[in-house]
Design a protein that fits this description.
With about 100 residues, the protein is mainly β. About 0% of the residues lie in helices and about 15% in strands. The protein has no helices and 2 strands. The protein has strands at about 30-35, 50-55. The chain is rod-shaped and about 85 Å long.
Length: about 100
């Protein structure tokens, strides 16, 4: 198991490595590149091989809607979605409002 930091090499004798993700600092959603160079017993290095991994955020955000229970006829009121949230490092970027009845 290894915690990767961009630009930091991790040297192993094993042909596989597990990418360990710290839940407090996960790899951000989006495209990330990982590189492998192998070295033979004579010290010769291969050309680098690079793969691209896409980290997807599949966890749904939580909508929290705060509103008054009763309003006077003909009076304006406020709907408040500020307490809505997403799992870090995600963030809510849009609010889609609909009157359903």
């Amino acid at each position: 198991m290894a915690t990767f930091q961009p630009g930091t090499e991790i040297d192993t004798a094993e042909p596989t490595i597990e990418v360990t993700v710290n839940p407090a600092q996960p790899i951000a959603p989006g495209a990330h590149s990982f590189q492998l160079i192998v070295v033979d017993d004579a010290g010769n290095k291969s050309d680098p091989m690079v793969v691209r991994i896409v980290v997807r955020d599949t966890q749904r955000p939580t909508a929290v809607l705060i509103a008054p229970e009763v309003v006077e006829f003909g009076q304006s009121f406020v709907l408040d979605g500020r307490r809505s949230s997403d799992v870090a490092p995600g963030r809510v970027v849009r609010f889609v409002w609909t009157m359903v009845s």
